[in-house]
Amino acid sequence: MGVGTSVSMLRPGRVWGPWSLLLVAAFSLPVSPAIAEVFCVVSTTDYNGPANGDDKATSVALDGSRNVVVVGYEGIALLDHNWQVRKYDATLTTLLASTEYSGPGTSDDKPTSVIVDGSGNIVVAGYETDVSGYTTWLLRKYDATLTTVLGSTAYDGPVFLAGVLTSDQSVAVDGSGNVVVAGYEWGSTGWLNWRVRKYDPTLTVLLGSIDYNGPADDRDGALSAVTNGSGNVIVAGYETGSSGTTIWLVRKYDATLTTVLASTQYVGAAPGIAGATAVAVDPLGDVFVTGSEWVASGINWRIIRYSFCPSPAGPVTPPPSTTGIAVYPNPFIRSAAVRTTVKFIGVDPAGTVEIYTLRGFRAWSGKADAAGRLEWDGRNSAGSLVVSGNYLWVAIHDGRPHRGTLIIE
Fold it and tell me: Are 353 and 370 in contact (CB under 8 A)?
């Protein structure tokens, strides 16, 4: 294909009737010569509820066998919807299991997020409408066959309205199987407030809960949550600022949800409407947040990558290490690092630390002090700053060499 050639693409869209794993709203995009691949449809399936009503898929997740779990709702009558959870094989040709849920009120019940834990169990977050007509959070955990409800819990907020906002990552599971859910509630102060709650794997014990009310006492919503390797909880969403405009808000909590470890905002290119809608964390701990912002020509995507740099306002606490050696900050941003150095802690006294390029060339080496500490300023053995990129470190701990990756930006 040459420049200017268009390829037909598919994007999610609202479907009045059957919902599908390929919700069809076709549009065309110019194909750049740099794009070497195009999307090819391998398989597809849809679902039309028994009432032939307003049916919509809202979230998808994969298990360890590549089976596909889809949650959504099916229309029963006007303003009456039920949960629908369906599990397909990887080819989308075989329905392996399905289940539905109808709340106590004959009204709106919708799941908004699904995740599969390490044991293949399926955790679904959403909301239900009670007999009084108010919506409440609902978390349900199913076994892999969708035949057994392993746990279920509801939350109705301090006043009378709560509900998990539509976000395909508003529920997360940490390494111990604990379940974290983020959403909003009608707060006892303010209007709509953030709410983040953490449950044990059985959904019977509340392990932590925290809310947030923005400076304007207005609309504030948590849209996405994820946990990192240390069990910390990172939540992305929006708040209404004192000027009345909505802005991004990203907050990092400790594993107990009692302490805010970090918080950041993003106003957008032009003050107006901006909000973070999804968050992910990579194995190195960097956080990727997607959302939207207001610009002069309309509303655009925005994707931001964050690292956690030491705060100049307080002492630096090294992160935990499975090797016995703490290396921080990583990624290493010279201008942001305390004393503009990378710190190695836990090395054997007078033990060696070596830095290598990915091609195996040694860039630098040094020896730790009597306390097993060493700092490196990012210069090679000749005294020149090394270029940005990925490096390997090797250090001695308990008489044995340990290795890791160091990113220099």
Answer: no
Matching fold, domains 45-306 and 326-408: no
Domain boundaries, the chain: 45-306, 326-408
- Please provide the CATH number assigned to the domain covering 326-408: 2.60.40
pLDDT in tens, 97-113: 999 999 887 778 889 99
Write the pLDDT tens digit of every residue in 17-74.
455 554 333 334 454 555 557 788 889 999 998 888 889 998 999 999 999 999 999 9
- In the CATH hierarchy, which fold is given to the domain comprising 45-306? Neuraminidase (2.120.10)
What's the confidence (pLDDT) of residue 20?
56
Query: What is the edge-to-edge ordering of all strands in the sheet holding 260-266?
Result: 221-227, 233-240, 246-253, 260-266
273, pLDDT greater than 50: yes
Cα–Cα distances in angstroms (integers) from residue 377 to residues 6, 71, 311, in the given order: 49, 50, 18
Q: Coil, helix or strand for 219?
A: coil
Note the pTM of the prediction, 2 decimals.
Answer: 0.68
The rounded distance, in Å, linking the Cα atoms of 303 and 276 is 9
Q: Is 138 exposed, middle or buried (0-12, 13-18, 19+ CB in 10 A)?
A: buried
